[in-house]
Amino acid sequence: MKCITHERFCNTGQKAACNGGGAFGTLLSCRTVHENVAWRPLCKENTTAPLTAQEQEQRHRQYAGALSALIKPQGYLVSVERYEDDGAYAGLVRALEGQGLLQVKGTHMQFSCRCGDGTGTFQTGIFCKTG
């Protein structure tokens, strides 16, 4: 099992399999999308003009590919990401599906918790890699 939290591994010139070329049976990704997908926190995107479903998927495509490269066939991704905007999260899910990471039925959960002076909303899910 490999755990990544707050890691930046896209757009750095490194290959996606930054772990030395190996792949893992289970990858836990916790709050890594902010460092790899957008220059501003995705939790604040609800204040900007909404992107289309295709634009959201495109925005997450490289990140989803980097995650997929770290997971063995039939392996799992456990994802915990901070998303206020369901449309942005849907873009992540669509991009993961495009990389062969299918969400395991019944594993999605949304929860909120206190983060400093405010409340943060998190989306979680388990995805299985096909192939």
Brief write-up:
With 131 residues, the protein is an alpha/beta fold.
Mean pLDDT, all residues: 79
Q: Round the Cα radius of gyration to an integer and report it.
A: 14 Å
Helix/strand/pairing class, anyone?
alpha/beta
Topology as a string of helices (H) and strands (E):
EEHHEHEEE
Q: Provide the helix percentage.
A: 25-40%
Quaternary organisation of the protein chains = single chain
Distance between the terminal alpha carbons, to the nearest Å?
Answer: 19 Å
Count up the helices: 3
Largest sheet: 6 strands, mixed
Low-confidence spans: pLDDT under 50, at least 5 residues?
10-20
Shape: globular
Name the beta content range. 25-35%
How many beta-strand elements?
6
Q: Describe it for me?
A:
This protein is α/β, with parallel strands linked by helices and 131 residues long. The protein has three helices and six strands; from the N terminus they run E-E-H-H-E-H-E-E-E. A hairpin with a 2-residue loop joins strand 5 (109-115) and strand 6 (118-129). The model is unreliable at 10-20 (pLDDT under 50).
